[in-house]
Amino acid sequence: MKVAIIGTVGVPANYGGFETLVEQLIRHNESEDLQYAVYCSKKSYNDERWVYHGAKTEYVGLNANGIQSIPYDILSLIKASRNSDTILILGVSGCAFLPIFRLFSKKKLIINIDGLEHRRDKWNKLARKFLKFSEKQAVKYGDVIVTDNQGITDYVTQEYGKPSELIAYGGDHALTFPSKEESEIILKEYDLQPKEYSLAICRIEPENNVHIILSAFEKAKKQIVFIGNWQKSEYGKSLAEKYADSKHIRITQAVYDLKKLNVIRENCSLYLHGHSAGGTNPSLVEAMFFKVPIFAFDCVYNRASTEEMATYFADEDELISKLNDSSIDLAANSEAMFEIANRRYQWKIIARQYEDLF
Q1: How far apart are alpha carbons 292 and 284 in whole angstroms?
Q2: Per DSSP, what are the bridge partners of residue 89?
Q3: Whole-number Å distance between alpha carbons of 190 and 350
Q4: Could you tell me which of 139, 13, 129 has the C-alpha nearest to residue 64?
Q5: DSSP-derived 3-state class of residue 299
Q6: Residues 54-81: tens digit of each pLDDT
């Protein structure tokens, strides 16, 4: 069976959650009867290759993100329809084209609709309308709809009256095993002491409630290291400037070296997850593998991902209260996160679930 995967920047994975998903699907493919083809943005790779971990790579000369993502996905879909049995579409930006696509192709479409993009604060009203329309076409014309979180599964059922397949993301790819000496060097580089700081990692966007977390830690006088792309937006720049001189908050630019990042994660005393949208978030799933207690923003997606076993906050005051509550069993929290991660979020499990769909 030939399965084409479209809708991402491509492989090797160097951008986000969907790219990591693709990378892990092809790395965990053990079937001689399954051939992947991954459609990649020529704009994002200096070196084109024909094969990557057994998967064919096809290139489209457009950017995979921003406004070009729509024609990029459409062109990828047209090319994939000629050379595949099944097409896995990740995201809905190109799905507005599906009514036309169905006029000339009956290829099986499996569509992961991602995290309800039309509800994200970063889009303007016109973009939200378009994304909602694209989502509607995806659900209507897709043969199988994949959702990554029970909250989104319920949404698809309620909104469209259609069942979907629940498949989350894996997180065990994040695990590295540096030596004790390497860990000490990395902690020294970032001037950190084991278990003496809390940690948050995310894109610096309002929907990730960065402002709530920072304000709560400042008022509670608790130590936090906050890693993100602070210079990407005015929102991030203003927060970085506001807390630049704080004694309790360490504003840290994005860390892309996985070994360094994981030493920082492994040695934190508490992980903060402020995402309020997007289904099962890859950064949360990854953090669960490090066996640290997790405080997550109180929304249906985070509760589903953590099976109601994390500690939740809905606003700044509640977060401050939870930070100061010595009765919270942090050890039980961390044990539960680790158990859930190993039971649900290993890539070998995720890959088999997708293969069953194909």
Answers
A1: 11
A2: 6, 111
A3: 34
A4: 13
A5: coil
A6: 999 999 999 998 889 999 999 999 999 9
